[in-house]
Design goal:
By secondary structure, the protein is mostly beta strands. The chain is built from one helix and 28 strands.
């Protein structure tokens, strides 16, 4: 059984909205109801420039949009998290939270619109519950581990779950479940035997809620059963410590499969999370934080499919170029039997057919994506970015069936976006 936000149903843990959380739902299918039909119009761009690190946009009520993020304070004044309620047309700020403590860590957190009406924000090692109108703080909780936390999901019982971010050799990652009212920790946090870099995903199987955590060598599954969070025996291996490939980012849950791409802990990610507080130095490292630096391994970028029942795996190297690397996870479109994969470091976007038992590259496009995309299954459109050789970060629309480039519009940014696209009301994208 599944209650995916990204297939037109409302999950009981969220405010009844088509996009109340990152990726549109706990399964991270990034799917949007309706059509964009980008080829039939002319794109225009509205932008707002400030010195903040914008991570994601979510919707509560119709026309009620929020943006959350942090400050890119790698040195100098202390960082903090923030949430804004914005005008969906002009992007002007209608309300802003106070500066939210983050434990001194610099990393992209998450926000969501909860079923209880509040806006929740995780940033660094702090969780906040905010008033949806003026974004004042209703509750604050310092999390059990003082490291950056990435990903925040609401479960069907309304509780919240988040995790810290640990790379290989940094010990086990901690998954924490909290009350959505008081933000108190429920039971003891679960500590896995491995670290984890990617964000969590979740789905429902009858009365059991499964939470998927990408470890440094295995994909782990936790189960919330009868109010208790326990580690399941299902834990397929996707790499070894001596492997010539990097770690996985988030997973996409679709058609009884768990989809991941490895090679995510590129040099800049390692540098940020090998310092404490995460992402803080006396002097900023400069170009050492560039995602364009060569990958610290020789393996090509891999797309990996794990069977959610048996744990059996299959994989493909869509590009075959040594030293592959990514910033974001793949997306599977079940209606079109296609998974989208890419290589951010070397460039390349691919549609991989999953119709047969063996994965097969259906098409390739010479672009360089770096961010979390969105898909319109009805019209077969993928929206993602392309950071061009001339240094322009463009949004592109691609036909998922054929790989044809349907539209392109420069955003005006000279920095590649590694964050989350969100579908706005009508034919708009944030």
């Amino acid at each position: 059984m599944d209650i995916p936000l990204d297939r037109g149903n409302f999950h009981p843990g969220y405010w009844p909205s088509p996009w109340p959380v990152e990726c549109g739902g706990n399964r991270r299918q990034k799917a949007v109801a309706g059509r964009l039909d980008a080829a039939s119009g002319t794109a225009s761009v509205v932008s707002r420039h400030d010195k903040k690190w914008h991570v994601m946009a979510i919707r509560r009520e119709p026309g009620q949009w929020y943006v959350g993020g942090t400050m890119p304070a790698f040195s100098g004044p202390p960082p903090y998290g923030w949430v804004e309620r914005i005008n969906p047309e002009t992007l002007g700020v209608l309300a802003s939270s106070p500066e939210l403590p983050c434990g001194g860590h610099v990393w992209c957190g998450a926000i969501l619109a909860h079923a209880n009406g509040s806006i929740m924000s995780v940033n660094g090692s702090f969780l906040h519950r905010l008033d949806p109108e003026d974004l004042s703080i209703q509750a604050e909780r310092e999390l059990p581990v003082s490291r950056s936390h990435n990903g925040l999901l609401a479960l069907a019982d309304g509780s919240l779950v988040t995790k810290d971010l640990k790379l290989e050799g940094q010990g086990g990652t901690t998954i924490t479940r909290l009350s959505s009212e008081t933000l108190e920790v429920i039971d003891e946090p679960v500590v896995l035997p491995e670290g984890s870099m990617g964000r969590i995903a979740a789905d429902l199987d009858g009365d059991v809620e499964n939470i998927y955590v990408p470890g440094t060598e295995h994909m782990w599954r936790l189960q919330l059963n009868n109010g208790r969070l326990e580690v399941d025996r299902w834990r397929p291996r996707y790499r070894t410590a001596s492997d010539s490939h990097g770690l996985a980012w988030d997973s996409c849950l679709s058609e009884d499969s768990v989809w991941i791409m490895d090679c995510g802990d590129i040099g800049s990610v390692r540098k940020i999370h090998n310092t404490v507080p995460n992402g803080r130095w006396d002097e900023a490292p400069g170009k050492d934080l560039s995602w364009r630096n060569p990958a610290p391994w020789q393996g090509a970028q891999r797309l990996i499919r794990l069977d959610a029942r048996t744990g059996e795996s299959s994989e493909i190297e869509p590009f075959g170029t040594p030293g592959g690397g990514i910033i974001a996870p793949p997306v599977h479109v079940p209606e079109l039997q296609t998974t989208i994969a890419w290589d951010s470091v070397n460039g390349g976007l691919a549609g991989v057919s999953s119709a047969a038992e063996d994965l097969e590259v259906a098409w390739q496009l010479e672009v360089r994506p770096s961010m979390q995309p969105i898909v319109y299954p009805e019209s077969g459109e993928l929206v993602i970015n392309d950071f061009t050789d001339s240094g322009s970060d463009d949004l592109i629309v691609v036909d998922i069936r054929s790989g044809e480039l349907l539209d392109r519009v420069p955003t005006g940014s000279r920095i590649a976006n590694g964050m989350f696209l969100s579908p706005g009301d009508g034919r708009s994208v944030y």
